[in-house]
Amino acid sequence: MIRFEPRSNPGPLLVYGVPVLAATIAILLAAIPLALAGAPIIEAYGLMISGAFGSVFSTSEMLTRATPLILTGLAAAIAFRAKLWNIGAEGQLYMGAMAAVAVGSGVIDGPSWVMIPVVIIAGMAAGALMLIGPTLLKTRLGVDEVVTTLLLNFIVLLFVQMMLEGALKDPMSMGWPQSEPIIDSAAFPALLERMRVHIGLLIALVSAIALAIFVKRTVWGFEIRAVGENAAAAKFSGISVTKTMILVAALSGGLAGLAGVSEVAGTRGYLATDLSPGYGYAGIVVAMLARLSPIGVIASALFVASVFVGADSMSRAIGVSSYLADLIVAMALLCVLIGGFLTRFRVHFDRKSAQG
Amino acid sequence: MSSAAHTSSETSQDLLLSLAGVTKRFGPLVANDAIDLTVHKGEIVALLGENGAGKTTLMNILFGHYVADEGTVTVAGRDGDLEQLEPGAPQAALDAGIGMVHQHFTLAENLTGLDNIVLGTEPIFRLRRDRSTARAKLGELMAGSGLNVDLDQPVHKLTVGEKQRVEILKALYRDARLLVLDEPTAVLTPQEADSLFAILRKLAATGLAVIIIAHKLAEVLAVSHRIAVLRGGAKVGEMKTSDANHKSIAELMVGREVPASRRTPREAGKPVITLADVIIDRGDSRRSLHGVNVTAREGEILGIAGVSGNGQAALAQLIAGLDKPDSGTVEIFGETITKFDAHTFAQNGIARIPEDRHHDGMVGSMTVAENIAIEDVRSPEYQKLGFLDFDAIRTRAEHAIADYDVRCPGPDAPARLLSGGNIQKLILARVLEKSPKLILANQPSRGLDVGAQSEVHRRLLEARQGGAAVILISEDLDELLTISDQIAVIHAGHITPAMPTDSIDRSELGLMMAGQKAAPHAPDGTTTTKPGETA
């Protein structure tokens, strides 16, 4: 095992080149299922590109889709950096959305510059709490967080359903299980007139940059890196592993909660159980494609969103299943993982020799 | 251990392996420079050299993991004819009967010893496992060599020494005629090492050729027939072991005179740390202490001798601030400690050198500079408002790299690129730079080469001279007897009173380490364990 560890810093060409190459290969490989489905391949690719970038509207749709993916991608990236395997971003997203609705649908009101931060803080706090619980169970009792966070997703979704049938149900919804709408002062303003893309995108971009700086430049970021890379050495040096893990849980859960706020206050306007088509899970893929780099998450979220939006529109136009998008994203992930392994293996080969 | 005279059968028809003019370059680095090496049947050759001397590269070429730029590897076939080994083909090396025992074992922990040995030699598709042939063959091998180990135990239940035996059996089972052992004693206790050497001698007597890669001189002198010394990629010397002496080989390896570590007499000062009746019970003798009393004083090195797994880990955890006593007290500078916390300890003048420097001592993916500052990133010197002051961190690292001669590409290089000796220098730089009052050195020179070892000793002695108290936990008696002022013995969670090093008889120390002899009653009550408890 030890002999397969990476031994050197791969150059920037490899670090940035491999994911791009992997994504390209995955898109090219999509020709195989397209051909099997009997679709005209070149035309299908053209439709995919125009579906994601062909007009202001399609680009706006793509960016709207990318917004929650950046946030859940960041949530996964920071947690995985610290080896906290948070699979519960989906549940944290819904809790964040529910908290935003609870405070943002008329209970309190004020100007936008008060209400928008209020819904954001409420949503992030709810998401953070959702992950701090399992993290405490992990650090105190050694309970596997993969199991707890994963199962909490289903519990949260059922809880949201219950609330939407009860306390949070909109009396004006004609019986649909959905919440009262977010009031105007708490809603995220759109960035472009008559388009869906909203300031959630800016918040997501700022979050990515802030997180990158946080991890690289602050004491807490230092401690998170140390705990994630070698918890034993971090502990020996006097860093509290438990405290660091809780900080990571708060950040990761908070970012996933923020994705929920952004969806409910920016895109949808109200909470329903189909708010997220699996953004929490997709965030894991986004983070892995980005090799857990916060800035990289922006690029990989844009890639995943374009594939989804492009494939969606292509499938409607020529009548192939839109599951093709899932296929491309899955293949990109596999290509990145394989590429990452090959990079490390080759670099290690050189290193071992140099040590002699 | 002494350099006993060996008889080696060195006739040319017994030639088994010959490396001729092997050169390997990696970019500007010449890892192997025209190295010649021969090994005969029944011969034990020690390949000596410091870390980075080119030993591993040479062996990787032998095994086909690398292709040499120049030179040839020839192996005698089973009929005795010399044939050139296909370069870059590990399978060819295996077929030629070359077996390797790595320093880090390559065993599947959940499988039994037998499973591990036959793994890969059985056909994948079979109706029934018939291992009676394998057992018979292994039984013969064990009987002939003394490589006794319970083959039906899962490997994770075996001791380190037993695991190594499984590795050797694995190679022999595959009909190895040349066995290469990479640092075989690095993980063994002295007793285990002695029994390994006895086995190797027996095996050599039956015609097996052995190459031992090593950097511990005493062992090499005891077991080998011939010694080849590498330095900076070139072979700088080769001699019969009977003609070699400790000092000359050390100088050949290091390329300069190695200063002998020596204590200068010094009065011990006030007690720095006092453990009184400390009990730590973790239900496992390796991690428990049963009422120990220890005092370390200013300007004194207190050696803790013992066979590994007798409670050293518990003692080290306690002094490192990672564990707290179930009962009893720990006083540091006369103050009873109530908060056992690694951060507080590190910030209050306690330097801690971990036993496993790779596992506990550094974060491989972080930079050298970050690893040097890791204990202190929260202090105002290295951060402002939570943001790291990278200039201050880098400046400190630059000083540390220069003062402690840490060989690395620079302060921003990932720490995992460093060799073991340089990691240890990095840790020394991290903890000693702050003029600590108490130093916990847990196996500080284990696995290090001669030069790095002497450097560690020099630093510890320097700190002692400066008035620090040093607790040196070690399994290396030579190290303890050289630099400790006092030595206490730890056995089964009990620690004997400390005895002045000058009054200690080596063989008595050995008996005490084995728990067969109680310590003499110390005149000073503070360091006395209750009589009878040490038995």
UniProtKB/TrEMBL annotation, chain A:
Cell compartment(s), UniProt: Cell membrane
Segments passing through the bilayer: 12-42, 92-108, 114-134, 146-164, 197-215, 244-261, 281-311, 323-342
The species this protein was found in: Thalassospira profundimaris
GO molecular function: transmembrane transporter activity
Keywords: Cell membrane, Membrane, Transmembrane, Transmembrane helix
GO cellular component term of the entry, any: plasma membrane
Name the UniProt record assigns to this protein: ABC transporter permease
Membrane topology term: Multi-pass membrane protein
Database matches in Pfam families: BPD_transp_2 (PF02653)
Superkingdom as given in the UniProt entry: Bacteria
Coiled coil regions, renumbered to chain: none
Automatic annotation (TrEMBL), chain B:
Name of the featured protein: Sugar ABC transporter ATP-binding protein
Region (Disordered): 516-535
Keywords in alphabetical order: ATP-binding, Nucleotide-binding, Repeat, Sugar transport, Transport
Pfam families: ABC_tran
Compositional bias segments (type: Polar residues): 525-535
GO MF term set: ATP binding; ATP hydrolysis activity
InterPro entries noted in UniProt: AAA+_ATPase, ABC_carbohydrate_import_ATPase, ABC_transporter-like_ATP-bd, ABC_transporter-like_CS, P-loop_NTPase
Residues covered by the ABC transporter domain: 17-257, 273-517
